[in-house]
Specification:
- There is one protein chain.
- The chain is an alpha/beta fold.
- The protein folds into two domains: 117 residues, Alpha-Beta Complex (Aspartate Aminotransferase, domain 1); 197 residues, Type I PLP-dependent aspartate aminotransferase-like (Major domain) (Aspartate Aminotransferase, domain 2), CATH 3.40.640.10.
- It is built from ten helices and 13 strands.
- Strands 3-10-9-8-5-4 form a six-stranded mixed β-sheet, with helices on both faces. Strands 1-2-12-13-11 form a five-stranded mixed β-sheet. Strands 6-7 form a two-stranded antiparallel ribbon.
- Helix 1 crosses helix 7, helix 2 crosses helix 7 and helix 8 runs parallel beside helix 10.
- The radius of gyration is 21 Å and the shape is globular.
- Keywords: Pyridoxal phosphate, Transferase.
Length: 355
């Protein structure tokens, strides 16, 4: 495991050797995007390096409402609320729902949306489709009671875009809340990167809550909750919101002014995904999903092979050191067409050599 003194972008340098970097979650490359970093610095001239106060303070900064209004417009959500991390967004939302009904967890749900450590449903190795069909059956065959359903918007580890057509068939005879963690999809999937909220359909009686990190595709150290105005008013009155620091204002300043940069990066990312998928698809080595920049393989030896050829990909035990190794190639908008072709050719050489 290399230790470096700089943040990787398209490449990184280890012991004087340059590697192509195909890991991480900075899908739109904003963490190393020169124009975006200029906007952050510009924001710091306006708002300083941090805002160490509460959003309940008697001094209000305009940039919070500006960013939240933009998020509402982009996603079509009735209301948006930013907080200092995606994990906080998930915990704040799920704890506010603690008394709203029995919790049902989809397999693989991120810990940010757990109400308690290791929900029971996490221990059952079933597919997402099996779980969703079983859930609808159980809801339809038991007495009506309030339910909170919690799920990721997709599986970023083994790479699966979940089929959410089942949500349109949720029962309407009881209070139901559907909470989705869209941290890996927000900025990448959905209409113009607006995320799962633009693709989901639920009955009018079902409350939809979407939580997400802003730190992945958007490059903002923060999180967001999207839902109806009543629920977000409830969150604003909570200790989680009032007692926690907000997003650093300089980053929200950059976010509101970087929409063209995001659009350009998203276009490049989609071109990279399409190029790589076409090149490696016939090899049968990866699980991948249309429009998502992660390619999973069960063949962990690919990582050391690529490293020998100066390409560093994601390959480590997750979520704890005791868990199995997960090996993935992650593309970003920083990669060039030549980069993508190089990795694809190396993968092809590896696949042919192992047959």
């Amino acid at each position: 495991m290399p230790t470096i003194d700089h943040l990787p972008g398209r490449t990184l340098v280890v012991d004087g050797h340059e590697y192509l970097f195909c890991s991480g979650t900075s899908y739109l490359g904003m963490a190393r995007h020169a124009a975006f970093m200029d906007l952050v610095q510009e924001g710091m001239h306006h708002y300083g390096t941090n805002y160490s106060s509460s959003r309940h303070s008697n001094l209000q900064l305009a940039v919070f409402e500006e960013a939240e209004q933009l998020l509402r417009q982009q996603t079509g959500a009735a209301s948006a609320l930013t907080v200092s991390s995606g994990y906080l967004a998930g915990q704040m939302a799920v704890r506010a729902l603690a008394q709203h009904g029995r919790f049902e967890y989809a397999p693989g749900t991120h810990p940010a949306a757990w109400l308690a450590e290791h929900p029971a449903a996490m221990n059952h190795p079933i597919t997402y489709d099996t779980w969703s069909k079983d859930l609808l059956h159980r809801l339809g065959s038991t007495a009506p009671e309030p339910v909170v359903i919690v799920s990721n918007s997709l599986d970023p580890l083994h790479v699966e875009r979940y089929d959410f057509r089942w949500t349109a068939h949720l029962p309407t005879d009881r209070p139901i809340t559907l909470l989705l963690d869209d941290s890996h999809g927000f900025g990448v999937i959905g209409q113009e990167g607006a995320g799962i909220i633009t693709e989901i359909e639920v009955p009018r009686s079902v409350r939809l809550v979407v939580v997400s990190s802003l730190g992945k595709a958007y490059g903002i150290p923060g999180g967001v909750v999207l839902s109806d105005a009543d629920f977000l008013t409830q969150l604003q009155r909570s200790g989680f919101f009032g007692a926690s620091s907000p997003v650093v204002p300089a980053y929200l300043y950059a976010f509101t002014r970087a929409q063209e940069l995001y659009a350009q990066a998203r276009q490049q990312l989609q071109a990279n995904i399409a190029q790589f998928a076409e090149a490696i698809g016939p090899l049968g080595l990866f699980d991948f999903a249309p429009g998502f920049p992660v390619f999973y393989t069960a063949v962990n030896a690919l990582s050391s092979y690529l490293e020998k050829h100066k390409v560093l990909i994601s390959s480590f035990a997750y979520p704890t050191p005791a868990d199995p190794c997960i090996t993935r190639i992650v593309l970003s908008s920083l990669h060039t067409s030549a980069d993508v072709a190089r990795v694809a050719e190396l993968v092809r050489s590896f696949a042919l050599g192992t047959k």
